[in-house]
Design a protein that fits this description.
Blueprint: H1 7-11, H2 14-19, H3 22-36, H4 40-48, H5 51-58, H6 69-80, H7 86-91, H8 94-104, H9 108-121, H10 125-133, H11 136-146, H12 150-164, H13 170-175, H14 178-184, H15 191-204, H16 208-215, H17 228-233, H18 244-249, H19 268-281, H20 287-295, H21 298-306, H22 313-326, H23 331-338, H24 343-352, H25 357-371, H26 374-381, H27 384-395, H28 402-418, H29 426-431, H30 434-444, H31 455-469, H32 475-483, H33 486-493, H34 500-509, H35 512-521, H36 537-542, H37 548-565, H38 569-576, H39 579-591, H40 596-609, H41 613-620, H42 623-636
Helix pairs in contact: 3-6, 6-9, 8-9, 9-12, 11-12, 12-15, 14-15, 15-19, 19-22, 21-22, 22-24, 22-25, 24-25, 25-28, 25-35, 27-30, 28-31, 28-35, 30-31, 31-37, 32-38, 37-38, 37-40, 39-40, 39-42
């Protein structure tokens, strides 16, 4: 009715508002507050008259009057409560008005209404930027520190949540002292304040520089105190429970199906936030911080929490990420973390628990790190069956996206690393199907995510196969897996037909898997450092101790030599290879590659194949093979004879 009568057009003009007395202004604020809660159309009609902009200009004197402030603040909160009014409220300078009233008023009611306005407005990005522009974020941080009434502090913390969750404002909050402000609430005896403080801290730690500030690694800003110990105190301890003998003596009717609580008193939400905070802090790969985690016993505490079955899935995934990150460190820290805890099984549980692909890849990356240490390699091999089950599950995945190739690169590299273990483990590897898995990696390497050759899968697979075939304890079993059926051997030989330039170019260009493996060695590497667009391919390949193509050729031909040298497997290999492919293969090894190892293995190929009379005549009729043999003999001379390298030796 008021709007139909044109009341809003009559009252909301500068001259009319300026002429109102303080009492009339109070009544007008109360009237607008009541009208704002009626209908969206009414609110839009009032806002079209630019009421907040006009009020601010007309009531310059009244804004200083403490009698008007409670009514005007309540009116602002009534409009801000409705999201359809946010845009107009911000455009009409409402944010500045609210912050001004909060700063000048000492009345808790006024300050509470102002905080509520900011809380309601912070839902959208446009309003957040307006609040930040008017220095409202600093005002909210100050309110958290200086207010004495719990309702004011709670609303100030809640208003800061959208800012802490935004990548745009996390840096500002960290530099403005938000880490100290939020961490201080860990000491609060009010659960609600503790929950809000830890949750806000968790969101701030999503930003790397804030993590460095919290850990004391940043040079630009330091925290006022060291809050890591306080964060750990919020984690509950795992109690042993009641001894079985005492429980048997009690005659109570308690239902045995009810889970017995084994954690000390804690709040589940605070526990979840604390675990996520610690997982985020572990992203900073700093040996000093990792050592401090271990000294505080954090790894043992999180390990017990994980197996207590009293935390949710998200917290469990954060615990697994913590262990995966901290194992990307020195041998000393790795030994301390793995002492007395089956961390390998914990890392391998990531896929079974349906954790994210990122978590699965980080766990495999951690396993690859510890597998480079001989003592820890044996620990990983003790879980070989679980590892092979995880590998087979990934290889059988229907969707081959970026995460698939990341995980495949890590799994292939891990198998290749394990193949370097002591010979006593090779039989177990062969029986677990490691050769078959490496052959599958070769098949999927032909077409990567964008159609490129997955060079990392080829290099890892041929190296692992060569190591297993050359084993003095279980080489025969691996050989049998390689030549039955014959298509497996043919698949391996097909790698010799890959052009050397294409292989080296693929290695220079980089793939998803190669970048993943680089992060294993250098966890702190940035995406910018992984790009080699400015690097000349020839210079890049020239700096490699061994060219990728030569590495693949060397291991493939070495594997063939080992197979042909075996008295039982040699004839099987000759049956698997068509005679028309024998001479070209030997010619390629003798003259098609500049690698010395490949050339030496080429002579061994000719010697082994020549034992077959039919193949011997083929070599005698091939001038290229005879000329290469004679040329090499002339270059070497009778005085340059050297002892023959053993087949089981290193392939470089």
């Amino acid at each position: 009715m008021l709007t139909a009568c044109g009341f809003h057009r009559h009252i909301f003009n500068y001259e009319r508002l300026e002429s109102l007395s303080i009492v009339s202004a109070i009544y007008l604020c109360d009237l607008c507050r009541q009208v704002a809660n009626t209908d969206a159309v009414v609110r839009a009609t009032l806002l079209e008259e630019m009421i907040f902009s006009v009020l601010t200009d007309a009531w310059v004197v009244y804004l200083e009057d403490p009698r008007l402030a409670p009514h005007l603040a309540l009116m602002c909160s009534a409009f801000c409560y409705h999201s359809d009014s946010h845009q107009e409220f911000v455009l009409q300078g409402g944010v500045r008005l609210v912050i001004q009233m909060y700063t000048k008023s000492k009345v808790e009611h006024v300050r509470l209404c102002c905080l509520l306005c900011l809380l309601y407005l912070a839902e959208t990005g446009h309003s957040q930027r307006s609040i930040a522009q008017e220095k409202g974020v600093k005002m909210l941080l100050t309110a958290c520190e200086n207010e004495t009434h719990i309702d004011l502090i709670v609303n100030a913390l809640k208003a800061l949540i959208p800012f802490a969750c935004s990548d745009e404002f996390r840096p500002q909050l960290g530099m403005d002292g938000g880490l100290d402000t939020f961490s201080a609430f860990m000491f609060s005896d009010q659960l609600q304040l503790q929950q809000l403080g830890v949750y806000l801290l968790q969101n701030l730690l999503e930003f790397r520089e804030n993590r460095r500030i919290f850990l004391g690694l940043s040079e630009e800003r330091k925290c006022e105190e060291d809050y890591l110990d306080s964060l750990l105190r919020l984690l509950p301890r795992v109690s042993t429970g009641q001894p079985n003998r005492i429980k048997a003596m009690k005659k109570d009717g308690k239902d045995k199906s009810d889970p017995e609580p084994i954690l000390t008193k804690h709040d589940p939400f605070v526990l979840r936030c604390c675990i996520h905070c610690i997982a985020l802090l572990s992203l900073e790969h700093h040996l000093g911080s990792f050592q401090r985690f271990v000294d505080l016993g954090l790894n043992k505490l999180l390990f017990d929490l994980f197996y207590s079955e009293q935390i949710d899935k998200s917290s469990g995934e954060a615990v697994v990420l913590f262990f995966a990150n901290i194992l990307h460190s020195s041998k000393q820290i790795q030994a301390q973390v793995m002492k007395g805890a089956d961390v390998v099984q914990l890392l391998l549980s990531a896929r079974d628990m349906l954790f994210s692909p990122h978590t699965v890849s980080r766990c495999l990356s951690a396993l690859l790190c510890i597998s480079r240490v001989p003592d820890f390699k044996r620990v990983v091999l003790s879980h070989l069956d679980l590892l092979m089950a995880d590998i087979n599950a990934n290889l059988n995945a229907e969707e081959r996206d970026e995460h698939f190739y990341q995980i495949a690169a890590l799994q292939c590299a891990l198998l290749s690393e394990l193949a370097r273990a002591s010979y006593e483990y090779h039989e177990r590897m062969a029986r677990a199907g490691m050769v078959e898995a490496l052959l599958v990696f070769i098949t999927i390497a032909g077409k990567g995510l964008h159609g490129e050759v997955c060079i990392e899968l080829l290099m890892g697979s041929v190296f692992g196969i060569a190591a297993l075939v050359g084993s003095p304890t279980s080489g025969e079993h691996s050989m049998a897996s390689l030549i039955f059926p014959a298509t497996r051997m043919q698949l391996l030989l097909s790698l010799l037909r890959l052009p050397q330039e294409d292989i080296n170019e693929a290695f220079h260009s980089g793939t998803v898997g190669l970048r993943t493996l680089q992060r294993v060695i250098y966890p702190n590497i940035t995406p910018e450092e992984l790009h080699v667009d400015q690097m000349d391919p020839l210079s890049f390949i020239g700096n490699c101790p061994i060219k990728p193509a030569n590495f693949i050729y060397r291991n493939v031909i070495r594997t063939m030599c080992l197979l042909l040298a075996h008295h039982e497997m040699g004839p099987r290999v000759q049956q698997a290879i068509t005679p028309s492919n024998v001479v070209p293969t030997c010619l390629f090894a003798l003259s098609g590659c500049e690698d010395t190892y490949v050339q030496v293995y080429g002579f061994l190929l000719v010697a082994n194949f020549s034992r077959d009379r039919s193949l011997l005549y083929n070599f005698l009729n091939e001038s290229g093979v005879i000329n290469e043999l004679l040329t090499t003999i002339r270059r070497a001379g009778p005085s340059a004879s050297q002892p023959e390298a053993p087949l089981g030796g290193s392939s470089g």
